[in-house]
Amino acid sequence: MKHKILILGPQGSGKGTQAQLLAERTGLPALSMGQLLRDEVASESLLGQKIDSIINAGNLVSDDIALDVLKLRLQKDDAKEGYIVDGYPRNLAQYQTFSNFDIPTALLVITVPKEETLKRLLKRAEIEGRLDDNEETILKRLAIYDQETAPLIEKYTEMGIAHMIDGVGTIEEVAERINKALGV
Length: 184
Hints:
- The protein has helices spanning 15-26, 33-43, 46-56, 63-74, 92-101, 114-128, 135-159, 171-182, and strands at 3-8, 30-32, 82-86, 106-111, 162-166.
- With 184 residues, it is α/β, with parallel strands linked by helices.
- The chain has a single domain, classed as 3-Layer(aba) Sandwich (Rossmann fold), CATH 3.40.50.300.
- It has a five-stranded parallel beta sheet, sandwiched between helices.
- The relative contact order is 0.20.
C-alpha cells in the first residue's frame, strides 16, 4: 500500500524531526517545502531562477509555484511508493490545489501547547542566534498557523485521515505515538 503522509504542526513542534524518523522507518522520502525550494534554486533550472528572484525580492513563492516544485519532486523514483511531506499544505488554497493533484493517505498533526512551542522556539533562537525569533514574532507566526491551518485540518478530519499527535514528550515518545496512529 502506498503511504502518502502529510505532517503539520506549529513551528517548534518537531515535525521535521519526526518526518525524518518516519522516513527512516518506512523508507519513504521525507520532503520539506523549504528544502525543495532551496534544491530547485540550487539546480539553476528556469523554475529555480524564478524562485530565487522571488525570494531575493523578499517575497514568498506563490502556492502554484510551491505545488509545481512538489509535483516535480514526487515524480522521482523514490516517491513511487509514497512520501512524507513536512509542513505542506499550510492553508486552504494550498489544500485545494494539492487535492486536485493528489490525495494523502494520512495527515499527522503534531500538537503542542502554545507555551511549550514558545519555550522551544526561544531556546532554539538562543542556541542558533536567531535574532528574528523573539516572543512577539513567534506569537504572530503561531497565530497565523492557527488561523490558516485549522480549516484544512478540518477538511482532512472530514475525510477520516487526520491523526492528532501529542507532541509533548521525548522524541521517541512522539515517534511511538505516530507509529501507533499509522499502524507501522
